Batch of 3 targets.
Target 1
Amino acid sequence: YGKKSSLLLAALSCLAIVLSPAASEPPSEEAPAPVAPPEAPEPARVVYRIADKGPDDLPIELTALYWTQKARLAPGILLLHHLGHNARVFDDLARRLHQEGYAVLAVNLRGHPESEVRKGGGMNWMRFELPDFQALVKDVDAARACLAGQREVDPLHLGLIGEQYGASLALAGG
């Protein structure tokens, strides 16, 4: 038997699966209805500090949205947005991850809408330069430490997900 025979056999197998009676029959009346996953709670607003100080010589405090888990030692996911966005771009993804058992922290990066408790982080995302990138890497490190420090999070099981520029930060700070 050659290559043509093997391909024909594979094609007939696929056709048999598609044409099987179970695939063409309507669903049984007794089939259980799908159960919707429980709704994720609204996130808590979290404030975390970074090592840098602002122009007022006080530590810079940033905000994040946190979807907690009831389970002890749940894996954690840190979500990093793109330039000009904020943590809310991840609401749907964060809820889905929460439903899958993850504790999720979506950060508001320095210099972005809704990011700082007090203004003065010294960054404007519209005039972004290398020192700004380095500052954001520090923000990611502080956010990761914040997530790892939550009592219900397993600090050995953390993941980072970034949207465009946030992905670069995940790679640089991760």
Target 2
Amino acid sequence: ERLRLDGGFRKWFGGCMLWLGKSLKAYFVIVMALIVIAGCGVTTSEDWCTLSHADGFSGVWKPKTETVPRLISDAKTYLEGLQENSQTGDYQKGEIGKNLKRWNDYRCQIIGYKKDGKKMIRLNFFPKSHESKDEFPYWRKDLVLVMDGGVSFWQADYDVTTGEIIYFRLNGYA
């Protein structure tokens, strides 16, 4: 004999399936976002910090913590774009390639500041310490500023109004 389902059960079951479908979509989006973030390298708060003060910057403000992973991802995308740009010189493409290969080896300081009345964000990248002694134990409190150092140290400025990186600088070599 066939099992007959009344209309109330079918509505309830259909509602459960609809909810499950939406939940799976949300779950899928969350999982994909985590995969993308995991591939970005400098993404956990262990690898970055926001500074509330920095010598040489005026109108310092602290960017929202939740915006940091996107800013760092935008910096990586910017570097990838420079590397693909036909107007970028071969030497600079090689140096940028080194940055991208070492992406997981960076820390980043984030400093909000004002320049000519515009809100800007400086991303200051420098190498993580891989030895028992941290070369920059002060990095969560004070700006890491190094002359030379090559591709191990680089900066990018993000214009909050336009949502674009407008400045990029690799340190030179001694």
Target 3
Amino acid sequence: LRSSTLALSRAILLALQFQDRMNGEELNGIPIVSNPTEQIRRLLESLAFQVHRTAKWPNPGAVHDLRVAIRRAEQALVSFKGHFRCKATKRIRKQLKRVLSSAGKLRDYDIAETVLSKMKQPGTGDLLRAFRAKREAAARSLVMLLKELSLPRRVRRWCEDLELNSHRPKIAPE
């Protein structure tokens, strides 16, 4: 996890280093923009979209994309912490940690189900059914957390706290 965090941090910093040449292009699916605040605003917009998508359809792909969006947003906040108030970034990262933990539990069941479905051992079917039931419970828990936190609305508030004034929500308000 630490090496992937460092790699993402280096990629973001490298992209910003060459911002004049790359402005408007993408690096690993992340739009490269001319300043850190715009980059974080876009990452938070992407996070809001993934939260909305996962709350509606908590399938394995949506959960994976949500976790990726959270990790990217967290890493950008860490990488550019000098541009923002420390208190605001700490609060945002703390709130994201709860969601990442819940989504991680759900993702563990998805991976276990994938591995078990490939095994041809006796009793695997019973174990697979048990994991599916636990996965459904974890999915309900994640969806409840996402709704409880009202993350799309909260993301808009985070943009205000970080003074990312040009934030325009890309999803319908709740």
